[in-house]
Each structure stands twice: as C-alpha cells, then as structure tokens.
Amino acid sequence: MSDDAFLRRGLSRWEAKPAEAGGARQEKRRLAAAMRVVISRLVETDAPEAELAAAADGLERYAALLATHPRPNRYEGWAETSPAGDTGSFFDHSPLIGLSNPLSPPIELRAEPDGKSVLGRGVFGSAYEGPPGCVHGGYVAAAFDEVLGFANALSGTPGMTGTLTVRYRRPTPLHTELRFEARYERSEGRKIFTSGKLFSGDSLCAEAEGIFISVGTERFRALFEERQKREREG
Questions:
Q1: What would the pLDDT profile of 101-133 be if each residue is shown by its tens digit?
Q2: From edge to edge, which strands make up the β-sheet containing 178-188?
Q3: Kind of pairing, strands 117-122 and 108-111?
Q4: Which residues are CB-contacts of 216 (< 8 A; sequence separation ≥ 6)?
Q5: CA–CA dist 140, 199 (Å, integer)
Q6: How many angstroms separate the Cα of 146 from the Cα of each of 10, 37, 205, 219?
Q7: Rounded to whole angstroms, how far apart are CA atoms 145 and 166?
Q8: Which of 105, 136, 106, 107 is nearest to 120 (CA)?
Q9: pLDDT confidence of residue 169
C-alpha cells in the first residue's frame, strides 16, 4: 500500500460515523453512549443509597463478566490518532473521540478540503467540570492534543506529541457545543508544527500550538509489545 493510500485509509476510518458500524461494534458504541450519560448524571445526582447500591452491584457483576472475554490487538500502525493501517478500533477507543469509550465526550473530527485544516465539534458534560459550569483546563489541553494530532497526521508523516502549549483566553462552558479549528503549519525535519483554536459560538476560549515528532511504525510496535509484556506479567 502506498503512503498516500495508507494515509487516506487511516483518515477515512478516523472520520467513520456511528451509522457505519454494525454488529458488536454498534452495540459497544450504544453501551458506551449509555454509560456516558450515567457518568454525567452520576456526578450530579443525589439518588438514594439503595438505588446507588443496586446500580453498583449490577455494574460490578458486568465488570466481572467483561473480564472473561479476550482483549484482541486493537493497536496497529501509527501512534495515537495518527493514521494506521486499520484505525477503526483504535480510534473507536480514544478517550477524546472514541465512540466506544464512555470517557470520551466524544469530539467529532473531519479534515477540510484544503488538506491542511481540521474542524472538530463536541460537548463536554458535567463529568468534565473544573471551575463552576466550565470545562476543566486539563481536559481542554487533552482535547487539543487529540485535535492537533489529527492536524499533524495531515503532514503525511505523522508523529507523537513533543510539546503542547495552551493559552486559555476565557472559561470554556460545559453543556455547550464547542468548535475546534486546527491546522498543519509546516514540517522541519522530524518536527511537525500545528496550531489550533477552541471556540464557544464566536467566543475564543483557548489557543494551542503543538510540535509533533515523526515516528515510524517500528517504534509504535515496540510500545505495543511493551504493553503486552506488562499485561502478561500483571
């Protein structure tokens, strides 16, 4: 597979919509969506002890059941949200954009026609609260890392985060559709420069600059092998 085809395949998987999933993956996404609602409402609720106990008992039973199923290899190719040979499962479990990850808001990302820009949209619920009514700054930074990671992938030689600088302009509101705009700027050797902005409506909430370091599949494969070793030893 050529590098261009490799990149296009990765980006197309990255932008996969929920309707494109079927079978177990569709049900996993549905379960994650329900869990997302539970997580958000749990941090807000004043439910009675008996109800909370019953829910905890049920979740503990299901957690034990899930532990009986195998965990297949879902990490192939490039690191993080840079394109991979088969990125569907990998990105589906991302903590920021993964539709099968209940920790994910999730943020929807797409590449713009110019081939250098990225548009992202998402809503952060109560589980992400920092200042009253606002998104925790750490989650804002994590979201930028993911969004700029997509922009870095547009360079054609994607890499891993080297540095990430975030400037917070104003509080980022919860329960509000947010818009990320990011761009691949340039490459200098192995360094890939990206930039991004976060808006609530027309209000600029934060800006970011990222420098990514280009890596090959060999390095990422080594990371996966280290992960497998820790799981076997654990």
A1: 999 999 999 999 999 999 999 999 999 999 999
A2: 108-111, 117-122, 178-188, 191-200, 203-214, 159-168
A3: antiparallel
A4: none
A5: 11
A6: 15, 22, 17, 19
A7: 10
A8: 107
A9: 98
Our measurement of the distance from residue 196's CA atom to the centroid of its chain's CA atoms, rounded to an integer in Å, reads: 16
Q: How many CB atoms lie within 10 A of CB 168?
A: 14
Q: Which residues contact 146 (CB under 8 A, 6 or more apart)?
A: 80, 81, 94, 96, 97, 107, 109
The answer to whether 99 and 149 have CB atoms below 8 angstroms apart is: no
Structure tokens at 158: 């994607």
- Residues 15, 88, 13, 143: what is their CA dihedral angle, to the nearest 10 degrees? 40
pLDDT of residue 13: 47
Looking up tokens 């420069």 gives 193
Find out whether 85 and 77 touch, Cβ atoms under 8 Å.
Answer: yes
The tokens describing 76, both together, are: 């192939």
- pLDDT < 70: residue spans in the chain: 1-21, 72-90, 216-221, 223-224, 231, 234
The token pair at 229 is: 């070793």
